Amino acid sequence: MSSPVTARGDQVPADRDSRGPLDVAIHVSFYVLLATSTARYLTYHGVSGRFVIVAALIVALAALYAVTVALSRRAGVWQPWVWPVLTTWAVLVWLAPSFAWCAFPMFFLCTRAFSSRTAYLIVAGLAVVTSVAFFNFSGRTEWAVLIGPICTGALVVIAYGQIERDSRERVRLLEQVAEAKSRLAETERAAGVLSERERLAREIHDTVTQGLTSSLLHLEAADLAWDQPHSPAREEVRTATASLRENLAETRNLVHYLASPNLETQSLDAALLGAARGHFPAAQLRVVGVPAALPAEVGHALLRITQSAVSNVSRHADAQTLGVTLTYLPGAVALDVFDDGRGFAADAVGDHSTAGGFGLRAMRQRVQALGGTLIVESAPGEGTVVAAQIPYGGER
Fold it and tell me: Can you state the percent helix, strand and coil of the chain, rounding each to 5?
């Protein structure tokens, strides 16, 4: 509903309708006081004199007020109808002061119908008219009735003014909360996008990059040995071809679901051994403890960690032996990948660059995302151990 405009040009808020529980009480009290005032008038004056005029004004006032209430309950523009109600009541009070009692529900009606500044002026006028009417029919001896309506009108507009200020403040706070929630949702979406990018980077590194690197090493070895007697070049090419074929399958899977197809068709230890020998043919696997059913995300992480760690060994360690140990613990699973290669200063490894170095960071992110820990132990000339432990909630 659009905001109506009062005679002084003040805009009335759209939520100032006349449909709440308090408004119902105001309307009921008006008609009760109108009936009571009519009964008092008949008691003191009967049907003689100007009763016909008074009765017509009573009916008109009741009808106009009813129209105002009906429009307000239908969400119509009802505020302009308050003016004829007030005018009719003022004429009625001038003719019959007994009806001054109806002013009290009209105080509330005006605060609901008009903006604060306009309501202050109208209620002040109604209070003065009411005070004079009460003072007249009390024989001009009761000074309390002269002050009472004015004080009551002042209290009504002050109380409603405070209620409106509290309401506006509540609306402002709710808007701030909604805006904060919107900003939080946007931040969470941005964080989700960043997290997904990191996940994709890990998946690509542990599948496409590692597979292509392995194939490249085999092809380079074939190129160097191509012209040698009894050359193993053909075998190197075959190995590279198999690696590329496997890498193509991994890439297709990555595009579709970013899952581990090997874990769907074989056990975890077989998948880990296959992943290790794909980069280091002499790799060995040992299983410790009683195998337990692991969540898919845990098995997926262990497979990718193995692929990444063994690929690093194949490319950088110049190792003669490589072992993978899978240990089932109560509520957790541990993976150790160790080699006897040249090793490195583990505390000196920096962040990834275009030349590589993403593997350790990606492995650590995988493990931490599942609530686990990853430790890298290495020193120059002493080999390397990559140890990961991931909880999974099961009990052996």
Answer: 65, 10, 25
Q: Which amino acid is at 146?
A: L
8 A C-beta contact, residue 69 and residue 106: no
Write out pLDDT tens, residues 304-333: 899 888 888 887 888 999 999 999 999 999
What the block records as the tokens of 177 is 């909360």
Residues 6+ apart with CB under 8 A from 221: 232, 233, 236
114: which DSSP letter? S
Half-sphere exposure of 326 (CA within 13 A, CB side): 23
Q: List 338's β-bridge partners, or say none.
A: 323, 385
> Left if phi > 0, otherwise alpha if psi is -120 to 50, otherwise beta: which for 354?
alpha
The dihedrals phi and psi of 334, each to the nearest 5 degrees, come to -120, 140
Asked if residue 95 lies in contact with residue 88, where contact means CB atoms within 8 angstroms, the answer is: no
pTM, two decimals, is: 0.42
What pLDDT, in 10s, does the model give residues 187-221? 777 776 666 666 666 666 666 666 676 776 777 77
Beta bridge partners of 56: none
Q: Report the DSSP beta bridge partners of residue 339.
A: 322, 384
- Write down how long the chain is: 396
Question: Do residues 276 and 324 make contact, with C-beta atoms less than 8 angstroms apart?
Answer: yes
Q: What is the maximum alpha-carbon separation in the chain?
A: 140
Give one DSSP letter per residue of 185-231, joined into a string. Answer: HHHHHHHHHHHHHHHHHHHHIIIIIHHHHHHHHHHHHHHHHTTSTT-
Half-sphere exposure of 27 (CA within 13 A, CB side): 21
Please check whether residue 277 is in contact with residue 256, taking contact to mean a CB–CB distance below 8 angstroms: no
